[in-house]
Every structure is written in C-alpha cells, then in structure tokens.
Specification:
alpha+beta; Alpha-Beta Plaits; 3 helices; two-stranded antiparallel ribbon
C-alpha cells in the first residue's frame, strides 16, 4: 500500500537554526532518506520551497482566482513529503516516527494513497 508522509514544520523555527547546526540538521535528513530508501520502496520524495513561494487557487465569482502564499495562516507549513510503498500502516507509522524534525515540534500526517480503477 502506498502512503504519503506529509511533513509539517514551523518554517520560522527551521529558519532560525544556526548555520553550523543547520549542516548537522540537513545531514540527519540525508541519513534518514538513505535509511528509508534502504528499508522500504520510496516512490517519491522532495522538500518544498517556503510557503511564501506558494500560489493558492480558489473558486470565486464563478471562476478560479489565485492569490500569493498559503491558503491559511497556520503555525505549521508543509515542508516536504515522502511517498512510500509498504505492507501496512504500522510500517508507515514507524518511519514517520523517525523523521528528524519531530523533536523540533514537526508533525507527520500519514495518508493512504487512493487508487482509482478505470
């Protein structure tokens, strides 16, 4: 089963990490990604640009309307994701629990990928 591990973090907290600690923090991500790829099928993964680079599309007055930035102001922003293919939710939970930014207050939303048959 494929699962999305959506990683939410406070961009301000991440941005305030000193340079010498940021190098170590990023290395922990590289290590996590390598360990994950060696253990399970990683379908796709990426980090995202900061939320202020986002464009949001809504429907208003009968047509799509765009605005800069995220849809809503929140404490946490979507910072990146992994799509993994594993046997069950317990394995997805296990790997979500190893995300390096969890001790900094991040959260990981695990969502099964919905498959539509044609």
């Amino acid at each position: 089963m494929k699962y999305l591990l959506a990683i939410y973090e406070d961009e301000k907290a991440t941005a305030s990490i000193p340079k010498d600690q940021m190098d170590e923090f990023m290395q922990s991500w590289f290590t996590y990604s390598e360990q994950l790829a060696n253990a399970v099928d990683v379908v796709e993964s990426d980090g995202l640009q900061p939320s202020d680079s986002a464009t949001t599309v809504r429907f208003a007055d009968g047509k799509p309307v765009t605005s800069d930035g995220p849809f809503a102001e929140t404490k946490e922003q979507l910072g990146g994701y992994y799509i993994i293919d594993v046997d069950n939710l317990d394995i997805a939970i296990e790997w979500a629990g190893k995300v390096p930014s969890l001790p900094m207050g991040s959260s990981v939303e695990i969502r099964p990928i919905q498959v539509f048959e044609q």
